[in-house]
Amino acid sequence: MKRKLFLIAGLAGLLTLSSCKKFLEEKSQSDVIPKTATDFRELLIGSGYMTNSEPLNFLYFMDDDVDFFLEYANDPSNVVGSYDAQVNYLWYTWQPKLADINGVGVLIAEDPSATAYAQYYTKILGCNAVLENIDKSIGSQQEKDRVKAEALAVRAMYYFRLANVYGEPYNYNPKSLCIPLKVTSGIVSTPLPQATVGEVYDLVVHDLLEASSLMDPLQIMRRDYHINQPAIHILLSRVYLFMEKWKESVAEANKVFEEGGKILDMTTLATESGTWLTYNNAEVEWLFGGNTQPNQSTYVPAARFLSTYDSNDARYRVGFSLQTNTNVQLVSKLPTGLDLAQTLRSSEALLNRAEANVQLGELGSALKDLNDLRRKRIEGYADEVITDKVTLLQAVRDERRKEFAYEGFRWFDLRRYGMPEIQHRYQHDLGESVLQYKLTKNDAMYVLPFPTSVILKNSALKQNPSGQMPDRVGQ
Q1: Coiled-coil regions in this chain (predicted)?
Q2: Using CB atoms within 10 A of its CB, is residue 59 exposed (0-12), middle (13-18) or buried (19+)?
Q3: Using one digit for the tens of pLDDT, what is the confidence trace for 320-351?
C-alpha cells in the first residue's frame, strides 16, 4: 500500500508540472486521465495528500520541548558545535532570517516552490483541481461525495496549519492579516491579497463542516490512508478549540466516539513495540504525512519536559530511548525513513473535550476524561481529584503536551496559550560561553516571516514584523 502511495505521489508530482488543468483536460497527451470517482480518489492521494514529507518539520526547534545544549550528557560534542546544530541554529534561536537561510549561511528558499509555504499551496492546488472536477466524473453520488469530502477536509487542514504559522493566533487577533486564500486551481496573473485570520478560519470551518455532512452518511473506512469521518471530527474539534468555541469543540469530540473511536491501553505495550503511531494502534483514525522531527536521533528533549512524565508512564517507556554512549534519552516514538509518521487519533478528541469542558465549567466531565486517559497511559494509576478550574486546565494541557510530544502540536498550542516566554540555551562550540536566547511573551516571532522569494513572487504579500526584526543576540 505504501509503495502504491509513493508511486501515485510521484506521478501526480510530474503531472502537476504541466498544470492540473492540462492534466484534467480530455485531450491531454498523458496516458493517465482521471475519469471515474475512483481515479480522482487515487489522484488526490498524490496531488492533495501529504505522503512521506512534512514541510513544517522545523517547528519543533522553536518550542520548549527540545534542548541543543547537552550539559547532562557524557559527550556533549555529539551536539555542541556539530553541523546539525549549526544548520538549525536560526530556528532554535528565533532569528529573523530563518525563512531565507540556514545556520551555515546557505540559501534555503531561493526558489519559492521549495519553501514550506509553497509546498502547502501546491497540495491545496491539487485539492482544488479535484474539487472542480469530481462532480463531472463517472461514479455513484456516494463515491463522489467521499472524494469531495476528503479534498475539502485535507485542504482545510493545510489552511489551518498555514494560518498558525504565518498569522496571529485566532484568539489574539482574528482581524489581522494572514495568508492568501485560493480555492480554484487556475493560474492567477494578478497578485493574491492576504485574507484575515478570521477569514481563513471561516473557510476552514466551512470546508470541514461540508466534508462531514458529505461523509457522515457513508460507511466509515479505516486504515486506508484516506481521511475518514472520525478524523474530520477530530480536526473540527481542534479548530473550535483554537477558536475558543468550547461547546462546538465538545460536540465534535463526542462524534468521534459515537463513530467508534477507541483509546488504546498503552500500559500493555512492549517497549519500542512500533504500534503507537501506526494503524496497529486502534485509536489512529488517519495516518499521513512525513516526520515532524526528522532528526530525532540528534536533538535532545528538554530535561525539564522529560521530568513531567510519571515514572510508570508508558508513553515515556515507548516514546524515548536511552543512548548508552551519552546517557541521554532521545525521542524514539516517531517512525523513520519513508514511513508515514503523523496521525489523527481519538486521544486528541478526548483531550480537546476535556479542555473545552474545563472552560465551560464542566469540571467533573473534564476530570473523568483526564483520568480515563491517564489510566490507559500510566501503569498502576490511581484517579486524581481536582476541583480547582485553573489547576485542572493546566493538568489537561500538561497531558496534551506529553501525549503529542514532537508530533507538531506544541508550537501551535503555545501560540493559543498566550505566546509565553521561552528560553533556549546554545553553545556555539565546546569551551565557548553558553548563551541564553529569549523568545519574549507575545514575541513577533510567534508569527513566522514569509520567505523573501515568496514575497517577490506575490507583491501583495506583506512581510510579517518578525521578518523585519534585528538579529536576536544571546546573553
Answers
A1: none
A2: buried
A3: 988 777 777 888 888 877 889 999 999 999 99
